[in-house]
Here is the input.
Amino acid sequence: MSKDVESSLSDIGPLAVICGGGNLPLAVADAAEKGGRGVVLFPIRGWADPIPAGYRQHWVSFGNFGSFCRVARAEGCRDVVFIGSLVRPGILQLRPDLKTLRLLPKIWRMFRGGDDHLLRGVASIFEEHGFRVVGAHEVAPEILMPEGPIGTLRPNSSQQADIEKGLALLDAISPFDVGQAAVVENGRVLAMEAAEGTDAMLRRIEQLRRNGHIERAAVRGVLVKAVKRTQNLRLDLPSIGPQTIEMVARARLGGIAATAGSAIIAQSERIGMAADREKLFVIGVRATSAQR
Here is the structure.
């Protein structure tokens, strides 16, 4: 790395990574540090997984915005990334500090809408207080889903039709700011993601099969993940991790399709190996024209 690049990275300060659950926060932190950027992790209590001791970290509680501001500024952070799984909390789960209390009227309005509406509001609060919200893919472009298969398997013609139907469905419901995932099998929509999140949706499919409400199909269905039409790409991109492979296998689906260039995949080599082991396909597909 040249001295000019090192100097410019030093000038902008370390990156603050606000961590939800899963391994994506560490993947982003590792990529940023590999590129010469300092990183400070802010895992959220109750949501983030344990962070290894080698990472610079300050645990934060949901609703302690004032505390975050003090620590992040002391660390020299200006840029902020939100990454990791997070089931949307209720507003009554907040344990607000003084600064957050002053923001409660605005926060209350933010909660009156879908997840993208809420996240845009959160980003605006950070930016009003002097931080710059950046996308995880801007810091670590290698975590974006590539076009084509991850692993050795590909969807057959029936599954390809299910993928296309899933993409069309997610595009159609985009204006309602609902979810980013759907399950389609033999042309039948089995589930759409809503407030429960992808993992809970897949557990619902598993339970429906167990109860006999969904028969085991000759051609197994597909989990489709795609961005919403007006998605702010700095926030909450659809993602696939090793746990997604496990959940899809337990739901007896045939594979996963996610929009290339606008979905995140963690540890792609590991996911490819896991998909081959479970006889599943994982593929990056082009989004519909409205989703791009």
